[in-house]
Write a structure and sequence with these properties.
The complex is a heterodimer of chains A (about 200) and B (about 325). Chain A is built from 10 helices and 3 strands, in the order αβααααααβααβα. In chain A, strands 1-2 form a two-stranded antiparallel ribbon. In chain A, helix 5 crosses helix 6 and helix 6 crosses helix 8. Chain A is globular and about 60 Å long. In chain B, about 50% of the residues lie in helices and about 10% in strands. In chain B, strands 3-4-5 form a 3-stranded antiparallel β-sheet. A two-stranded antiparallel sheet of chain B has the order 1-2. A two-stranded parallel ribbon of chain B has the order 6-7. The chains are: A mainly alpha (about 200), B mainly alpha (about 325). At the A-B interface, helix 3, helix 5, helix 9 and strand 3 of A face strand 4, strand 5, helix 4, strand 6 and helix 7 of B. Strand 3 of chain A pairs parallel with strand 8 of chain B, so a sheet runs across the interface.
Chain lengths: ~200, ~325
């Protein structure tokens, strides 16, 4: 099943062609949001950074890679809609507005194809991003907004805010704690059902 | 049995003797790690089966593990000797870049995590730069690196001559004499950084404006109009809290889910870019507050033409 899932990875469907740009209305919030990004410059920055840091040559043949444009847009959409990797990749398969935001001009999928992009691919892409590249992407976005005359850096405000680091690690202690909690909940639930009054 | 910390932060009772004994055992157990690391390095150096990239990666991992052990061992030795720990102690063995955030109310526990800095526009909430530093540095140390990032963004614009940072506002946390001096050196007004808890005057008189310009030494560099705008911008500093609230509540920036400092930087940058996208949509559709619209008019920012349905009267 795992191998098959990997093979159904990219746009290999034989279904009818769908053009997201023709389908999604121009006033759709996700379309408006996606149109604010300077995608070309951002994708160029990503490709340049990857080429410098991961210069290995791809073998000839095999499955074509997923475009950085799609993966970058998915990662941004994940933070815009507040969903997990799994959810956002699943939504890309069914949500036409999300296809537009990911820059897919034509899509041909059949119903047997479960995913366009696997969550594992998104996680792999994310592991290649670094702090320098992210700063460059934020600068590109700010430069495009300034170029368009939408924002000005004349008067700025600075502030800080705390973020909790919440990467949970599965350890023996956490597993034991969860098991104890589950056992306690199930025992209290069963006790509750025994003590509950019988209907007359 | 003794208790650590302040009573208002919970019970905090710890079996000190037990903790010290355990720490000693762990120190003994990890004592030979340095020797093992040296042996491993030598073996790696003489190995011919591995490629250079793999060897470099393994050497880097080995260095990181040795450094982490050295850091943890130093902290453990202080604990067993009963010496006070420094503020930036290790709270996560897997990630030494995490530090307690000693910021907030006295009756709240210190959080373990990151302190992100933002540099944003007061009118629309567009974030020009952000910073996720190593550990928990002071607030003034955030400002100059973030201003450098803004300058990098300005340099990317085709005609950057007319784009300059005129003023910077902040809260009492960034009130630092050295920082003010550095900002004045860059030609940036610091009237938006308060020196007391008293609210700022958004409309200074001509004498006050002249005094501000003389005090900062920017008499020939900044105009009275720019001082007025800087005062208005600094007065509206609480607006930044609403930008932060939107990052925290709707985009989950208050909880870093990705691992390590790199992960935190990636997550927060993505959050900032998503937020900026939404801010640009609001600007294009002119869905801004009246105060923000007025501020944008004063800054001379052009209005984006929106195709209105009412225009088509056919």
């Amino acid at each position: 099943m795992g191998i098959r899932r990997y093979l159904q990875h990219w746009f290999t469907g034989r279904g009818p062609y769908l053009q997201p740009s023709e389908f999604v209305p121009e006033s759709h919030p996700m379309r408006l949001w996606a149109d604010t990004f300077p995608w070309e410059a951002m994708v160029q920055a990503v490709e340049h950074s990857f080429a410098q840091r991961f210069p290995t040559q791809r073998p000839i043949g095999g499955r074509p890679p997923v475009s950085p444009r799609v993966l970058l847009a998915l990662e941004l959409l994940k933070h815009e809609v507040g969903e997990s990797d799994e959810d956002v990749c699943h939504r890309l398969r069914t949500d036409v507005a999300m296809m537009y935001a990911c820059g897919l001009h034509e899509v041909a999928a059949d119903r047997a194809q479960a995913h366009f992009v696997l969550p594992e691919t998104l996680a792999q892409f994310r592991s290649r991003l670094d702090q320098e590249l992210m700063e460059a992407l934020v600068a590109i976005q700010a430069a495009a907004a300034m170029e368009e005359g939408l924002v000005s850096p004349a008067h700025l405000l600075v502030d800080t805010f705390p973020s909790e680091q919440g990467s949970q690690r599965v350890t023996d202690a956490t597993t034991l704690y969860k098991a104890q909690k589950k056992a306690y909940n199930s025992s209290s639930g069963s006790r509750g059902s025994l003590l509950s009054p019988r209907p007359h | 049995m003794r208790s650590f910390g302040r009573q208002c932060r919970g019970q905090g009772k710890v079996f000190v003797t037990l903790v010290r004994q355990t720490e000693r055992q762990l120190l003994d157990l990890g004592g030979s790690i340095e020797n093992w690391a040296q042996d491993a390095k030598e073996l790696l150096h003489h190995d011919t089966h591995l490629r250079e990239i793999q060897r470099e990666r393994l050497r880097r991992d080995l260095e990181a593990a040795s450094d982490a052990h050295r850091h943890i061992a130093k902290q453990s030795q202080r604990l067993t000797q009963g010496k006070k720990l420094a503020q930036c102690k290790i709270v996560n063995a897997y990630d030494p870049t995490i530090a307690p955030i000693m910021k907030g109310k006295s009756n709240c526990p210190a959080q373990f995590g990151r302190k992100t800095g933002l540099l944003s526009e007061p009118a629309s909430g567009f974030i020009f730069a952000h910073r996720v530093p190593h550990g928990n540095p002071s607030d003034p140390s955030y400002v100059l690196p973030m201003l450098d990032k803004v300058q990098q963004a300005i340099d990317l614009v085709a005609s950057p001559q007319r784009l300059r940072v005129h003023s910077l506002g902040g809260d009492l946390g960034v009130n630092d004499a050295a920082l003010r001096h550095a900002l004045h050196g860059r030609g940036i007004l610091t009237v938006g950084i308060p020196t007391t808890v008293e609210p700022m005057n958004p409309t200074p008189s001509q004498q006050e404006v002249r005094a501000i310009l003389n005090a900062s030494g920017l008499h020939r560099i900044r105009t009275p109009h720019q001082v007025h705008l800087a005062c208005a911008s600094g007065y509206s500093r609480p607006v930044v809290e609403s930008h932060i609230a939107s990052l925290l509540s709707s985009r989950g920036a208050g909880h870093v889910r990705y691992k390590g400092l790199e992960g935190a930087a990636v997550q927060l940058a993505m959050t900032v870019m998503a937020h900026n996208g939404a801010a640009l949509v609001r600007i294009r559709q002119q869905r801004l507050s009246k105060r923000a619209q007025k501020f944008r008019r004063l800054l001379g920012l052009r209005r984006h033409k929106v195709n209105k349905v009412n225009d088509s009267k056919t």
